[in-house]
Design goal:
The chain is mainly α. Helices cover 80% and strands 2% of the residues. The protein has a two-stranded parallel ribbon with strand order 1-2.
């Protein structure tokens, strides 16, 4: 299409008459009519005005041929504007979601507790089978919660993955709310970390005292219960804090970090799926549930290190 055809098409898309378009551009209707009949060509100022009015690039207007993909790229890179209402919706969704994700994670951690305790207390196959069924039920509930949250969260994920701008004073209000939350965040992080550290006390005492197997099983159960509480607190605090960082595009949610995160998401998913597979395979094959839990703290430490290496590799390739 030539320039005349594009002016006609874009004007009709917006539902404007020649007279309405002329009014918006500060020219006569006859001038618009001449442009659309190829009788004359608008000057550069009018081209720029039409580019803004139609929401297209000047390249699109001026070049007779342009690939549709190029125009689509322009549309995709248009800046997203976030209003105060949308910001509040996002913060509320993350606050509710933090409880869902935290509880689902706790269920995963607690799921082997009945099997571990009953496995060391009795050889009754019915009870052991029941505890195994309970493990699968708890994991299934956790998976349902994760999936349900993921579907609800999908509508707001662009804030975590794409760059955007906030409307007037939104950043100031969000920054103030984050400042008010920081004491709670610091306290909850400290409590969660302390609980995770103290969780090993029951198993250490059981090992030192050389108690019966069933007491060892109970001590591991207590360990997982305490860990589940600590992790629950950590997840809630972390997700709420990250929701503020996301809207302010700070911390892990700067434009640069978002660009890198897009490329590391697939690695993270594959890593944790592999860890779960190793944990379940090792636990079921050895039936040593009171020991195989060690894979989670080890995997957590290794994840941070390996993810750092992956990020360095990606950044190195892009330089």
């Amino acid at each position: 299409m030539n320039l005349a055809d594009k002016i006609i098409e874009e004007r009709k898309k917006n539902g404007w008459s020649q007279e309405e378009l002329a009014s918006k551009l500060g020219v006569s209707r006859q001038a618009v009519s001449k442009w659309e009949s190829s009788g004359s060509i608008p000057d550069l100022q009018r081209i720029l005005q039409m580019s803004e009015l139609f929401g297209v690039t000047t390249d699109y207007l001026l070049k007779d041929e342009i690939e549709e993909e190029r125009q689509n790229e322009y549309v995709e890179t248009k800046t997203i504007k976030v209003s105060m209402e949308e910001a509040n919706q996002y913060l509320d969704m993350k606050s509710r979601g933090s409880r869902i994700v935290a509880n689902a994670t706790s269920l995963c951690i607690l799921s082997p507790v009945p099997l571990i305790v009953l496995g060391t207390m009795t050889q009754d196959h019915i009870l052991i089978g029941f505890s195994l069924v309970l493990l699968l039920v708890l994991v299934a509930i956790a998976v349902y919660l994760f999936v349900n949250y993921g579907i609800r969260d999908a509508s707001m994920q662009h804030l975590e993955k794409e760059s955007f701008e906030t409307e007037y004073d939104v950043s100031g209000i969000v920054r103030e709310r984050r400042k008010q939350y920081e004491p709670t965040f610091t306290r909850n992080i400290a409590i969660g970390v302390v609980l995770c550290i103290l969780s090993v006390i029951p198993t250490i005492m059981a090992g030192v005292m050389e108690v019966e197997d069933y007491v060892s099983g109970i001590s591991v159960g207590l360990l997982l219960i305490i860990v589940s509480i600590g992790v629950n607190i950590l997840i809630r605090a972390g997700m709420i804090k990250s929701s503020y960082d996301t809207l302010l595009q700070e911390g892990e949610y700067t434009i640069e970090e978002k660009h890198v995160k897009k490329k590391t998401d697939s690695f993270s998913g594959a890593y944790w799926c592999l860890v779960v597979a190793i944990y379940l395979g090792w636990s079921f094959s050895t039936n040593n549930w009171k020991f195989t839990w060690i894979i989670w703290p080890v995997a957590g430490v290794l994840y941070a290190a390996v993810l750092g290496l992956v990020k360095m590799t990606i950044e190195g390739r892009e330089k």
